């Protein structure tokens, strides 16, 4: 009986190691093939992703680059993008981002597709798609006229009780301004 238990344990360890090694690779390949077209369809603008590294057990994925919109004049560009999903939400049938980060993020809202309808009164419809935490080391908000507003060390969190917290730094002529906000 002891010998059977040892053999069974070794087989389980071998199967688990193989699943971890090949499962992550297969998941990355599946995401490479399906995620950009899915996002393109959902968002209404072209999405390009660099090859994705994934960890199935940790529910994490990383891509070296994300481009949304026309690559010559994109709406969003992010580098070294990391995302993590929520196990509890996944187990209840929901797909929810817990965490997202990027080394650099550029957002140019004027390049986002327009529906022709007036802006909504509230943005509660975005709730299921927003991560609980978003961090990026550097970024730029770019206006339609091309004016750039640089941001550094941005952190946006949504506490479980509601609201949001935001902090960032802005380089200015007189130094760096540290800003925070709560809602």
Describe, in plain words, how this protein is organized in 3D.
The chain is α+β, with helices and mostly antiparallel strands. It is 26% helix and 40% strand. The protein contains two helices and nine strands; from the N terminus they run H-E-E-E-E-H-E-E-E-E-E. It has helices at residues 2-43, 87-91; strands at residues 47-49, 52-55, 60-68, 76-85, 97-107, 133-142, 148-157, 165-172, 175-182. Strands 1, 2, 3, 4, 5, 6, 7, 8 and 9 form a nine-stranded mixed sheet that branches. A hairpin with a 4-residue loop joins strand 2 (52-55) and strand 3. The longest helix has 42 residues, at 2-43. It is globular and about 75 Å long. The termini are far apart. The mean pLDDT is 80.
List the helices and strands and how they pair.
Blueprint: H1 2-43, E1 47-49, E2 52-55, E3 60-68, E4 76-85, H2 87-91, E5 97-107, E6 133-142, E7 148-157, E8 165-172, E9 175-182
Parallel strand pairs: 5-6
Antiparallel strand pairs: 1-3, 2-3, 3-4, 4-5, 6-7, 7-8, 8-9
